[in-house]
Amino acid sequence: MANGKIKADTLEHSTAGSLDTQYVVNGSTKAWVHFDQSDHSADASLNISSITDSGAGRSDPAFTNSFSSIEFCAVGSQSGSTDIDRVLAGPLGSAGGSKGFIRCRNTSGSDVDTDNVSYECLGDLA
Amino acid sequence: MDTPQFQGTHLFDRLCWAKENLDGVQSDYRVVYEDSVDECAKILVPDPNWMACALQGGILPPVEVYHELAKDESQPDFTKHTRGYLLHETQPIDAMTEEEAIEYLIKKDCPQAVWKTYNEGNRLKLVICKKEQLPQTREWRNAWKIDQDLIAA
Q1: How does pLDDT run across A97-112, given as a tens digit for each residue?
Q2: Is A113 left (phi over 0), alpha (psi -120 to 50) or beta?
Q3: Which residues of A sit within 8 Å Cβ distance of B?
Q4: Is B3 domain-assigned?
Q5: Nearby residues of B16 by Cβ (< 8 Å), 6 or more positions away
Q6: Contact assessment for residue A107 and residue A57, using Cβ atoms and an 8 Å cutoff
């Protein structure tokens, strides 16, 4: 059915047990983006309004539908450089639940640009 | 494609609809701003899915809704949004031009201290440009500043 809606509190498998649909609602990624730090144009995304290029290796995605608080979970990764040994990701401290950050850091402790950067967030939306 | 009547629909659900039904729009516009004299210039890049929503109309809430949420966040006792319903229940805005969408995005994602006073003082702190007007390589990225000679231009 086009644009139909199924309302259910529980999903039940024939043999493997049942699952409360709250797990699906609460456990799904609410915002994500894939981009290159060479130009910060998103290749693919959901619930992102912009990405701010804040310097080499430093990117700040902003959300269209904010999170309800700064207490959301952010995860980041990159596959564009073997020199990066740390990717830091989280909520941006001064922005409530409306922005996040991702930093790509090399073995010397400097933030440097890389490509194929991924960022995703889980948590409660406002 | 016509936008469904979305007032009262959760904003996240609208974004999911848009992702499924609209093609992303890569904008050539960039917003360059400085919010600290000690830091390099920052460059805001619009998201293509968001731009598609802005051009389509009937999806995004008025930018004033985000300002109301920002007011709540600025309160010293803020822990959690309690007026998130404003995002979902306020009448969505009509279709914007790309230029209007950039203005909306500045008011949403740039610090208010920058865009509210962009034309005050003797230092240029916000510029809208095309991406080809930015340096073509990332060399010395952390030293980039807005060219103050643009004031005279």
Answers
A1: 999 999 999 999 999 9
A2: beta
A3: 3, 30, 33, 38-42, 45-56, 60, 62, 64-66, 68-69, 95-99, 113, 125-126
A4: no
A5: A46
A6: no
> How far apart are alpha carbons A31 and A126 in whole angstroms?
13
**Owning domain of residue B47:** 11-151
Sign of CA dihedral B60, B95, B119, B150: positive
Instruction: Tell me the HSE value of A29 on the side-chain side, using a 13 A CA sphere.
Output: 14
* Mean pLDDT of successive 10-residue stretches along chain B, which has 153 residues: 94 97 98 95 98 98 97 91 97 98 98 91 92 95 93 63
pTM of the predicted protein model: 0.93
Identify the bridge partners of residue A89 per DSSP, sorted by sequence position: A102
Comparing CB atoms, the residue among A39, A56, A64 nearest residue B15 is A64
Residue with tokens 């968001």: B50
- Number of domain units in chain B: 1
Is-contact A73 A26, C-beta < 8 A? no
Length of chain B: 153
Assigned token pair, A61: 């995605």
